[in-house]
Amino acid sequence: MPNLPDVVLWSIPAFVLLTVVEMVSYRFHPDDEEQGYAAKDTATSLGMGLGSLFFDAGWKIPIALAYSALYELTPLRVPVLWWTVPLMLLAQDFCYYWQHRGHHVVRILWASHVVHHSSRHYNLSTALRQPWTGATSWVFYVPMVLAGVHPAALAFCSSVNLVYQFWIHTERIDRLARPIEYVLNTPSHHRVHHASQGGYLDRNFGGILILFDRMFGSFTPETDRPVFGLTKNITTHNPLRVATHEYAAIARDVAGARTWGDRVRHLTKGPGWQPVRTDRPEGTAA
Question: Localized where (predicted)?
């Protein structure tokens, strides 16, 4: 198959340049309603991003081996041509939607993805705040490999999706033209996704397109100004704790669970799930 470029690697200079431009824009055009940048928060986001590059390099080895084995098992083959690449990008975006949605509703998956939502600021550096346990996503793309998409082509499509999402992590861009807002994931749509208000929680999971959210009932437009962060924010800028805090919380909940069923549910239910306590004080009527 043709050699496909490493989109993320080629985009790093643009990431740095655009982040600096956004920082400078806050100096000359401050907005009291926007969070802007904070030195410790930005440093944490950059540290998480650099760490993810290191850990992803390790995760890629077993994932590539698994994809390659599955690719060899299927008789199907999708050639990399000018007209098949857009179709592969569409299929990858569809799988990304379900991968992203799954990482919000299954707690053990959320433990990885929560890293990206842990900042109370929303700027281009937030896009770089990536988890160090990215191996939780690969299974969602198995259907593409079994359909005959070469693992390298899948990696290319995933990189395009990731690079696209960089620019939507900003408060500096308001709503765009209606046709764009209807079809594509935009800063307005993604601000909703990063908000912690009840009406905005677990909405707008799209990567490049917002159409799948519209199709599957998870779309919410931006109305009230978003409050960014988690429903229970963390108070650390230590990258190691940012990367692992939800895993530690899960371990505490599992250790304190009374039944094996509750232990399993602490892993598979949503992030806010807790068992219903039926204990009653002595003397209380049943």
Answer: Endomembrane system
Nearest-angstrom CA–CA distance, 142 and 242: 29
pTM over 0.85: yes
- Cβ-Cβ contacts under 8 Å for 162 (sequence gap 6 or more): 7, 8
Residue 73 to residue 70: CA distance in whole angstroms:
5
- Write the pLDDT tens digit of every residue in 79-137: 999 999 999 999 999 999 999 999 999 999 999 999 999 999 999 999 999 999 978 89
How far is it, in rounded angstroms, from Cα 237 to Cα 252? Answer: 21
Q: 124, 18 in Cβ contact below 8 A?
A: yes
The count of other CB atoms within 10 Å of the CB of residue 213 is 22
Supply the pLDDT for residue 2.
63
Domain boundaries, the chain: 7-19+37-268
Q: What angle do CA 253, 255, 258 make, to 5 degrees?
A: 85
